[in-house]
Amino acid sequence: MLFNSLPFLAFFAIVWTAYWLLRGRRRPQNAVLLAASCFFYGWWDWRFLGLIVFSTVVDYLCGLAFDRPALTARRRRGLLGISLVANLGVLAFFKYFDFFAESLREACASVGVTVPDFALHWVLPVGISFYTFQTLSYSIDRYRGKLATERSLLDFALFVSFFPQLVAGPIVRAKDFLPQLKRERDFRWSDQALGLQLSLWGLFKKVVVADNLSPFVDSVFGADEPAGVLVRIAAVYAFAIQIYCDFSGYTDIARGTARMLGFDLPLNFRRPYFALDPSDFWRRWHISLSTWLRDYLYISLGGNRGGSRRTTFNLMATMVLGGLWHGAAWNFVLWGFYQGLLLVVHRVWRERRPAPAHVTPLRRAIAWFGFLQLVCFGWLLFRARSFGEIVAFLSPGGGWIGGLVLSDSIARGLVLGGVGAVVLFAWDAVQARRGDVELPIERARPLTQALVCVALYLAVSLAGSFLGDEFIYFQF
Amino acid sequence: MCVLLVEVAFGWLLPRNPGRHEVDRRVARIAKETRASRNVLLSDSVSYGVLDGIELPDDVLDLSTNQAISVAGNAFLVERLFERLDALAISPPVDTVLYVVGPTGLEVALDSKRFNEPYFTSVFTRAAEIAAVDERLDRPDLVRAMRVARTRARFEFPSYARRGVLIEPLTNALRGLKRGLYGAAAMPTTPTARARELIEERSQRAVFEPSSVTRAFLPVLAAECERRGVRLVLAPPPVAPTLLAAWKRTGMWDGYVGFLADVARPHALVRVAPSCPVAFDTDAAFYDGVHLEQAAKSTWGEALAALLATDLDAAAFGAVEAP
After folding, report:
1. What residue of B is the nearest CA neighbor of A408?
2. How many CB pairs under 8 A join A and B?
3. Domain boundary pick from A187, A212, A227
4. Shared-domain flag, residues A204 and A166
């Protein structure tokens, strides 16, 4: 069930009504949300509900076991091991088995050894990378003693499967979300207004910007012959905008719908294209994943406590695995390696030349522009489907604007998506000037807020593309 | 509350027009037609859009589309036009319907996953249209998709169903811009390698096989025109000379013209034009072997517009006879 579809609108209207009719009765409210979440996930493929149930039960039981008296350190490690093996095993089996099987087959074929096809060719369960990371964080935090055991299976199951963020994040930590499930949720008009505004803003990003740019990007990346140089460059920039709007749009809708149900989900994007360097970028892009990787992988590997070489290794390992998290393909590994390399080079640079206390606007502008090009180059590695496509994309030929097919839908999409992107970055700029507010209209008068909402609604309805494009991050 | 008001206003003030593509535009145009037409143009993708930017007489109606709607969609467009003019008690609604469609266009079988939904099943959702498909084609997939689209249309927000109010002027402006950019292009002197390859590939065809959709609905279109006293002219579009020569040699062309003649035979008002009035003497006029380069498109558009401005008769296209 896509957020940008009528079925979701109907589904949410029913859930919202039932949920608030039970106001003041926390457990029934949670039960409604759990049932709704199962329905929401089962809409894609009910068979994969079993995986969520499996992940939930394993971590719930591990959590309870951590509470047993006189548990030795070895047994604690054993419990954590069970959780890691169960969750990462499911992830590895469903997401990475075919990738490694195919890679092995190709490697063998390259040295003349024929290996039969033993890939499973199973469908990737939607959102599996998100909810496994979410449940893992609970077990690791329990192991580290940073979290109390959750005794209510209902609440724990809802923490794992809460529908607004179930399939594409943000990845919520148990310490942030479980307490929200324990308290009474008050119906506040301010929450409803902010939730609605966030949802509309997310829809605007998704259907007006991302989905309108999508036909152009797809036509260039999917072309048989490489397009002209300028067309390829334009496609990379367009994809940079598309993926940001697609993913942050999903997050905004997730946060907006959660807010309308009285929950606060963490910020996942903080104007990432305003970043000045790689560290800054990863503090702004997919924040819930980057902090997860930092807290549970980078720090577990030793972080920056083992000297320069060890830190470099830890950074590279974290980013390569982060790249692989995005998808079972070598281009994602390459993208992760590239991001790791940027972080390492920046770190070495900063060690030799510490950041000046005062940076002139010109230097900031140069840093911003230069780093943006590096980010966009990274998106080429991310979007390509093979090394061959990357090489073809970077090869000369095709003239300057050769291969530019401006069909009605592509031309219209470029104009509407382009105008939408200008609005988006202007909005982001206003947000940056006003500090970390959710939305620039948050503190405006109610009438202004209402008018902006109507404008967003009309933009979505009149200029949005509703071709049934899924959110890009669903595949991860 | 504001959104509700906006939606009510949209529903009240504007006619339905999703504005996604030319079929939506044609349907919206038919829905507000108020006068009889002398000539109506239907087409496949070769002739679709060639009249854009050319000033046509008021009594010429351009219903050309890219043929993703198939012959069935074209038949439904004409039926909708007739029904609309019937409702206004305008009779006869049209003098001549000119359907410019080549062999490839007649092979469209509504089997494209990509095009069926936007161009056909979500456009033609009237009960009579669904019934016609159900009755004449053994295609439960199409019928189901049309029914789903009909149901979904009931729940569409009024503003969404009328987004053509923004999309259509924008599309027209961009088309104008594109014509301005490419309009002065000279005819290429040699065909591209890709065009040569495609012409070579298509030249091998020896048997013309109209799709089941064409077999079912071209007679419907002919009968509907006949019943209302409207002349229907079936005419070929420009074809690359190498391809045309090959098809005439292999019998493909005879099969195509013969099929049209078979459809026309029972109807006194249906004529077949065996050749196109504009013939290009180079394959370079066809960028992919079938569709026209910009300069050739302009030439064909001017010629077609001149024809449509006359009391159209198949004689204008050459001898009216079956092979």
Report:
1. B171
2. 47
3. A187
4. no
Minimal CA separation from B276 to chain A, in Å: 26
What is the domain extent for residue A446?
190-269+356-475
User: What is the tens place of the pLDDT at every residue in B293-323?
Assistant: 888 888 899 999 988 888 776 555 554 443 3
What is the total residue count of chain B?
323
**pLDDT by residue (tens digit) across A181-212?**
999 888 998 889 899 999 999 999 999 999 99
Q: Are residues A168 and A43 in the same domain?
A: yes
pLDDT in tens, A63-117: 989 888 878 888 889 999 999 999 999 888 888 888 888 888 888 888 888 888 7
| Predicted pLDDT of residue B165 | 83
Å from B3 to nearest chain A CA?
Answer: 6
Judge whether B323 lies within some domain. Answer: no
Residue A129 and residue A171 in one domain: yes
Q: Is A309 domain-assigned?
A: no
In a domain, B123, yes or no: yes
**Res. A125 pLDDT band, cuts 50 70 90:** confident
pLDDT computed for residue B322 by the predictor:
38
Say what the pLDDT of residue A95 is: 83
At which of A155, A187, A219 does a domain end?
Answer: A187
DSSP A327-340: -SSHHHHHHHHHHH
Question: DSSP characters for A122-185?
Answer: PPPPTTHHHHHHHHHHHHHHHHTT-SPPP--HHHHHHHHH-GGGTTT-----HHHHHHHHHSPP
A275 lies in some domain: no
A144 and A243 fall within a common domain: no
How much of chain B, in percent, has pLDDT values that exceed 90? 38
- The helix, strand and coil proportions of chain A, stated in percent and rounded to the nearest 5, come to 70, 0, 30
pLDDT band at residue A378, thresholds of 50, 70 and 90? very high
Establish if A303 belongs to a structural domain.
no
Partnered with residue B98 across adjacent β-strands are: B41, B233
Residues of chain B with C-beta less than 8 angstroms from the C-beta of A454: 2-3, 6
Q: How many domains does chain B have?
A: 1
My answer on whether A124 and A11 are in the same domain is: yes
Task: Look at chain A and count its residues.
Answer: 476
Contact at CB, A412 and B167, closer than 8 angstroms: yes
A453: nearest CA in chain B? Answer: B3
Name every residue in B having a CB less than 8 A away from some CB of A: 2-3, 6, 20-22, 118, 152, 155, 157, 159-160, 163, 165-167, 170-171, 174-175, 178
Distance of residue A416 Cα from the nearest chain B Cα, in angstroms: 9
Number of domains in chain A: 2
The answer to whether residue B322 is domain-embedded is no
Is residue A39 a part of any domain in this protein? yes
Which among A225, A456, A461, A467 is the top mutation candidate for probing chain B, defined by the most B β-carbons within 10 Å of its own β-carbon? A461
Question: What are phi and psi for residue B60, nearest 5 degrees?
Answer: -110, 130
Domain residues for the domain of B67 are 2-315
In a domain, B321, yes or no: no
CA distance A405 to chain B (A): 11
Within this chain, do residues A34 and A163 fall inside the same structural domain, yes or no?
yes
Higher pLDDT, A407 or A265: A265
Instruction: Provide the β-strand partners of residue B42.
Output: B99
Q: How far apart are CA B269 and CA B260, in angstroms?
A: 13
Residue for token pair 């919206």:
B28
Short-list A58, A473, A27, CA closest to A254? A473
From the list B6, B21, B152, the residue facing A408 with the nearest CB is B21
C-alpha B119/C-alpha A65 separation (Å) is 59
Residues A12 and A97 in one domain: yes
Q: Measured between beta carbons, which residues in chain A are less than 8 angstroms from residue B118?
A: 467
A156 and A196 share a domain?
no
